[in-house]
Each structure stands twice: as C-alpha cells, then as structure tokens.
Amino acid sequence: MVRILPRTARAGALAAALLLVAAPAAHAAPAAAPAAPAAPPTVTQQSLTPTTALPDTPVAAQLVVKSSACFTAAVLGVGIRDAAGANLDFPGSLTNQQICPQGVTLTTGTRSFKAGTYRMFGFYQDQAGAWRNLPEQILTVAPPPPPPVPVVTLDQVSPADAAADTPVAAQLTLHASSCFTAAVVGVGVRDAADNNLDFPGGAASQQICPQEVTVKTGARSFPAGTYRMFGFYQDQAGAWHNLPERAFTVTPASAPDPTAPVPGKKLVWRDEFDGPITAVKWNQSISSAYRYGNYNPDDDKLDRIDPNGVSVADGVATFTARRSDFTLPSGRKAWDTGLITTENTVEKFMVKTGDYAETRVRMPKELGAWPALWTWHKGANEIDSFEYHPDNPHLLELTNHVRPAQKYWPDLTAVKPGEWVTIGTHYLADSVDWYVNGVRVFEDKKGVGANWTAYLILNLSLCSGDFHPAPSGTGPISFASDYVRVYR
After folding, report:
1. Which residue of 206, 293, 328, 350 could cross-link 297, Cys pair, CB 3.0 to 4.6 Å?
2. What are the tens digits of pLDDT across the range 201-212?
3. Mean pLDDT (whole number) for 404-427
4. What is the pLDDT at residue 27?
C-alpha cells in the first residue's frame, strides 16, 4: 500500500533532500610545498704556489682549498694561461676528490714554462658538471737574478812611510761583503807624475770574504818623495778595481835621533795625549786578550772594558775604574774600567823585534788597582813592560811571557803610589831589556826572537783578591799616562 504524504510533509522532505544535495563536500588537507634545493658548498682557495719559477725548468704546483660543506668534486686541478690565453694547465689533477671544511692539498705533476708572466688558478668541476675557477694569481717565470757584486772594503794598507832607497814591503788588509775569488790582489803606488811603481808580488786567485784577509807584497825601494798608495784587485770578470788611496811618504835617509832613549833609534809612533782618544791609534772597546772581548774573569781580574773609562785632559790620559752592576761568571761584581790597544784600529800599529816602547805613568794609590803596559797578538806574544800593585807600593813586575823570564824590581825612590815614573822596554831578538827613568834595570837574556810582532795595550785592571787585595771600597780608582812612544 502506498502511503501518500500530506502536501506539507512532501514539501519538507523535498527541502531536506535539496539541502543534502547542495551541502558542499568536506575538503582534504593541502599538499606540502616542495623543499628548496640546498645551496652549493662555497669553495675557498687558501694557498697556491709557486709564484715564481725558472725558465724551462720543471716545477710542480701546490693548491690548498676548503669548502663550507663536504662534497665530492669530479676534478680538482691547477690551471695556467699564458698571455695569449693558451691552456697550459699543470698535469696530475685529482678526480672524485672530497673537499670538506678541514681542507685538502693537491700537489700536481711537474711541467716547465718559457720565460714570461702567466695567470695561475685552482679549478674544480662540481657535482652538476659545472667548471669553477678559483681566484687567479701571477706566476712569473724568469732567470734568477745575478748574484750581488761583492763590496770590497779596505781595512788597512801599510806602510805609511819609508826611508829613501831602502827596500820595503807593503801589507794590505781587506774584506768583502760576500765571498769571491779575486784574480789578482796587490798594492799600487803612483808618483807625482802618475808613474806606476807598484809593489811586486801580491796574491793570485785570492779568496776575499767578510772575514779580513791580509796580503803581503814583495819589497822594493823608492826615491825620496810623496806617493799615492792603494790596494787593488781584479774581479772574476776581468775588471780592475782600485781601493781608497793614502799618502805614502819616503823620506831621505837620516841619522838616528840623538835624543832617543836607546842609541840608534828614531821615533816612529807616539801618542802624547794632547787630544781625545780616536780609533786611528787606539781601540778602547774590546781586546782579543780578554776571553769575552770586553770582560775577562781570568787571571785574577774583575775588569769590564768601558769605552768611557779613559779620558784626556791637559796632555794626560786618565784611566778610571768604577764598581759595576755587571756580574761576572764567577759571581763577583765587575768593575768598569779603561783599556786602550792598537789592535783593531785604523793604523793597526804593532811593535816588532828591535823596537823600544816607553810610557810615563802615575801609579795608583788604591788597593785592588792593577795598571800595566803590555803586548798581545793572536793569544800570545805577551811582554809586560810593567805591572804594578799598590799592596807592593815600590815594586814593578817585569815579565817576558814569550821566552819566560821575570824580575820583581824594587825601587823605594822611583816607584811610589801617586808618583810619576818612566818605564821603557827594548824588544830585542835575544834579550828584552827594561828601563826605569832612563836606566836599564833588567836584561832577561831571552828576547822575543827575530820575527816577533804584537799590539800595545795600556790599561787599568782590578784584582779579584785571589793573589792581590781586591778593591776595599766602591769609589773610583784611577791611573794616568803622560804618553806612549815607540822608537825603531
């Protein structure tokens, strides 16, 4: 049986059905947006070498790179382009090379290049197949620069004078900024008319280095006159070079000085101390007789050489010692004191066999003082013209260390603290003779031999107390000299 709904009911059912049809369907959640691609790693070139090379000489390159994140480069290598842009890359690139933040080093194979300027750079191929060049730098391919030309310095040329018509040899001391071999080294002489009167001899194939080298010539004689004398050398290229000139005076032969302290001698060198101490005659900074150059804890000494320890006034050189803050290796405090020597000076004057050396000195009063005039050369050749210690106030110590001999010479009248006394030494081959106030007081009958030479040293030492009393106070101690003279 079909049930017929009332009209109003049919209308409500129809409306409900229409609502169902018109109602929108429920929507699904939207899909997520695709992720952005990761940024490619940043590759940094940390170093690339070399920057220079020699022409036609195989050379390898070294490249150091790192990246901001690890990745594998298909290729890592070092590129080269010449001025025309031609590809001259180094061989030996790396393939499938992982590059990470800690870095990687590539050393290529070798290749050679013609002289010129090139652009050099690291490169790599990334995972997508793209080629990437790293920053460029210049590779300069050129011959090595020529070695610097050595600078030759004249240290000394002697003699400064000679007697007419008397054979004399020359001696040249020089050094160079770097070692080289001179084909010839010699000593030239020119007269007033520029005639060549060079000394014979010299040296062939002579190496000259930063250390001093001395060349001695043969002997020749000259007429009286004034000459120009200079060292010269021939370099490896065959060029001749003259060193600075100095005057060379040849005087007529003359009779010995009748006022000389010993017969038959002429005054050849002196310092009257009428002006300041200069490097021409004296070195007042170091001595090879001192183990450390400027101080010497050996031999009962407290000395440390002070260039200001010698002053000149009124024709007198005064040596002054003062207590120092410097501690010697022995643990004792040093005394800064004065010393002068002819070693390492412009003149480089040396006494030799036959010479007579004399000084006039005022002896110190203070205990611990130890003045002396003595000689030294290459660790030996020591002759003590005198040594003095105020604890033995009237005693001079006269010593030959070359052929050992010694005398303690007392004189109550001539030798006194604070008084002047003249002391001379005659360096003979078979005897060293000592003079006090013009009177010979000791002949050692030993001598120095025929070929003895040495530098002079005049100084004020200080005793440490081992053999003579050390200074008893901290005040200055002084000693003085009126002159030093050498007769020959």
Report:
1. 328
2. 989 999 999 999
3. 96
4. 53
Buried b (16+ CB within 10 A) or exposed e, 369-400: bbbbbbbbbeeebbbbbbbbbbeebebbbbbb
pLDDT in the model for residue 40: 84
d(CA 236, CA 216): 21
Domains annotated for the chain, with CATH where assigned, are 43-141 (2.60.40.3880), 152-251 (2.60.40.650), 267-487 (2.60.120.200)
Is residue 9 over pLDDT 50? Answer: no
Q: Binning pLDDT at 50, 70 and 90, where does residue 34 land?
A: low
Report yes or no on whether pTM surpasses 0.70.
no
